[in-house]
Fold this sequence. Notes:
Number of domains: 1
Number of strands: 14
Strand content: over 45%
Largest sheet: 12 strands, antiparallel
Shape: globular
Oligomer: single chain
Amino acid sequence: MPRTTRDLISTVREIIGILPVTVFFLSSQVQGGELIVKGPSAEEVVNRMIEMNRSRAARLPQYTSQRLYVVDNRHFAKKAEVAVQESYLNPDGKDLKVVSATGSPFIQHNVIDKLIEAEIEATRDENRDQTHITPQNYRFRFLRTEEINDHSCYVLEVTPKVPKKYLMRGRIWVDVAEFAIVRMEGSPAKNPSFWTRKVHFVRRYEKHGPFWLPSSLESESEILIAGTSTLKIEYFAYQIGAEAVSANERTLSPSQEFVDGRPRP
């Protein structure tokens, strides 16, 4: 396999892996007769976020969703689109089924299939600790409060303690009311290869009932010789709980199924 192709695959695999799934009482004090209101510390935000994430994960029984992967390399004029159905069951994990594919077979098999394998690999027990946004993996710095997509959010800078695979360097936006991540933006903590000059990604989340689930991922990589490559994933048609059971019964016959990160012929 050409080196530039291996670099592209390595880059998008690590971006996919980065991916991780109450109200504070504000403190105040009076200075010179003026009331000064302070927000929570980065530590308070992160601790509450971890607590709420655990609670939501424990209450999420199962769901199904659909995805559209689009990979485009303008330098080689190659593009591929792959539609995927996801089935998640707590605590067993997820299965991903490819239901349709168009465009470059090379990108389909050597990039998108590898992305799917990498995502499931990143959720396995031995890798799970690497993907969590926790004090064990990161240092946090409170930056500001900001409105994003009609949500008031705490913006935190995240810096990896060790440049491990699947960790990120950048910022997270945490919903003020529910302490769920609304947006992640940054780059991999560890450069995928010498030939990859720059990687930037943005991942967004949306609320479905009481649960916050991915809505989109956009990534752009600058790779020597291969030029700019883009990856986009849209997540949609979520069905949760009993609705997911019904949706599974209507599942299309897949052209390929991934179980435990391995393609089934």
